[in-house]
Amino acid sequence: MKHSTHRLTGFTLLELLIAAAIVALLCAIALVNFQHAKGRANQARCAANLKAIAYALYAYKLDLNRYPLADGTAGLGESMGQTSPGNGPAANGSWDGVPRVLVRLGYLGSEQYLFCPTFRERFKGDRLQRFRYAYNNSAADTGGTIGAPNDVDRDAHDIWLARCLWVPPESSFTPQANDVTYPHGEDHDRENVLMSNSRVELRDGRQDFRKAFGISAN
Length: 218
Prior knowledge:
By secondary structure, this protein is of the alpha+beta class.
């Protein structure tokens, strides 16, 4: 009488370790690709926000014959014509922001248009209120922009109207700014910039700031 024998087979420990390493590698690659895709999606949404802001600003100017003043104080309230150094609504408190009056008057459908999507994800509550889009009409109420190269009401050449961050961390008024990075680009060194001809560009904001204010790279 013959007895049939069945050899039990299975994975060795080495094979399991190799399989686990392969799965971990694939997960890491997938995570990196997901983060890049998410970053590109936020960049596109940000550009759409800035386009909406452009149409809102143009409509406001068409109705009132001037651009609105910038909000100068961080928070949920309107603060056009006010100034609060270090507590502005943009660039972690270092810059004035796109005015909330555009939302109240219906030129923008939601306050979400006032914030870069990357910053909306990164910061919550009161901290977010210091990261609105920076706006290039911050001193029009005091005449501070008259004759300057960034006078949005008077200059005919193409200049910036709104942007994600603008002030580089090392030049910020606030000591907490050293943990702030630009919202776009794989190296987090880019921001979207809305120009006065309604074009949106992806630019190196730190380099723009240094060039505009004559700050040495060193």
